[in-house]
Amino acid sequence: MVKIELPKNLPKAINYKIWLLTLILILSISMQGQVKSGQSSGGKRRIDLKHADEDIIERDKLSGKDWHRLIGNVDLAHNEITMKCDSAHFFPEKNQVTAYSNIHIEQGDTLDIMGNYLFYDGTTEKATLKGNAELIDKETHLYTNSVTYDVRNKIARYTERGRITNGDNRLTSIIGIYYLSTNTFHFKDSVKIVNPDYIMNADTMDYNTKTETAFFTGPSEMKGDSLYLYCEKGWYDTKNNISRIWRNALIDNKQQIIRGDSLFYNENTGYGQSFGNVSISDTNNHIVVAGNYAWYYKEPERFMVTDSALFIQISAKNDSLFLHADTISAVAVSDTSAKGYRLVRAYYGCRIFSEDLQAKCDSLSYSFRDSVIRFYEKPVLWSRENQLTSDSVAVFTKNRQAERMELYNSAFIVNQVDSLRFNQIKGRSLTGYFRDNDLYKIEINGNGESIYYLVDGDEIVGVNTAKCSRIEILIEDGKITDIFEYQNPDGVIDPPSSSPETDKRLDGFNWFDHLRPEKMKDIFTAAGERN
């Protein structure tokens, strides 16, 4: 009992306050004494010995403190965990345990940790287990040689290679940290996931054992029978086979190689989306489609690319064909053949560039069945010095090179002689023939008309105006060398006009040279017009 004497001459209000503060101080000292006698600071109890078949008390010569040598069916407890083993050294003053053989730690009803050796510090609440260490948390099993477990924060760590089983997945890494409260592993160094359907390798990875989702935070790849994936950032849901990856992202589904700033893919449905710097490559058919957004399906194979869409037909002779349009799509079409074929469509503002052929139209289609490109809505084609127009055009290719082209209705060829004069040939339909991608012969059928300037060196010596049912034109190095008129030709040769401005124009004449793409990047200019 502590008796406190207060001065008698102090006011009653002050006396009362001093008395209250003194009472609080006494209660605080009393509570601290209780903590020292039964608990450690923060309400953490000392390690409690529940049972041992044999308890031998020994004294440490250096500290003079007693410690316990426990043998047989040892059972200890601390806060929310229990520790069982065959034998142990228990140091009550240090609040520590060193245990041996058949170690088994339990926390709650879900976590079990086993090993051959244990050191546990009750003050820090950290346990180190060595020798065939195993951690079991519901469906997750961790096997390693040594593991450190933070009881207070529920964090397990290993640094000597670990193996984890979770569902159908087997995970291994050199270093690992398991956050039990969030069901998340953090792996580092030689990370590998083995699944019946694929193998995943990474330098750094997080893995959620509840959702079975892998999170990539470094160079990572996944190899399977039907899918290859690479990225440096992203995630893969191993339970539902869904991925979203970015940073050098690539997906190869064995039919398409897809790249983009960000990729989404559902392997179960074969559906995916790509965002930013997208490319879809088909190495079998030597084509690449690029843009800034795409969606795609694996089966039946189809895709759509838009936003700066570009189609590339790769040629073995370094004469690739480049097509730009607002939107490019492709679909696999079934027919009587076992394989079927692919149909590519491009629409709104199509422009084509290759070294030997350029074109412009509103829309087109490319059938892989007959290797034909069909142009619609005011098509214009350029081959060397010749401009060709008609209501619609079909270009037939073979081995990724032009073989012939057909112009239907209102076929018109224009070839510039000088700044004001033009060779002009028109008819109902036209067939042009290519050799090594060079136009070398043209046939006009039906209602043929022509205006052709005769040139001797650099001098124009005459102009041939003719009409007939059929016209054949021979071309060499892009220049018209001969014109043959068949079936009742009607024509005259006049001297050239002294005023070129008054030279004749056939009905339907147009000169679209300002729309012609002279280099690959011109296909992206507004309305196809060159700067």
Shape: rod-shaped
Instruction: Give the DSSP E fraction (strand runs of 2 or more residues).
Output: over 45%
Q: How many beta-strand runs?
A: 38
- Uncertain spans: 29-43
* Mean pLDDT, all residues: 87
**Could you estimate the helical fraction of the residues in percent?**
under 10%
| Rg computed from alpha carbons, rounded to a whole number of angstroms | 42 Å
Main sheet properties: 36 strands, antiparallel
How would you classify the quaternary structure?
single chain
Instruction: Indicate the structural class.
Output: mainly beta
H/I helix tally: 1
N- to C-terminal separation? 101 Å
What does this entry show, briefly?
By secondary structure, the protein is mostly beta strands.
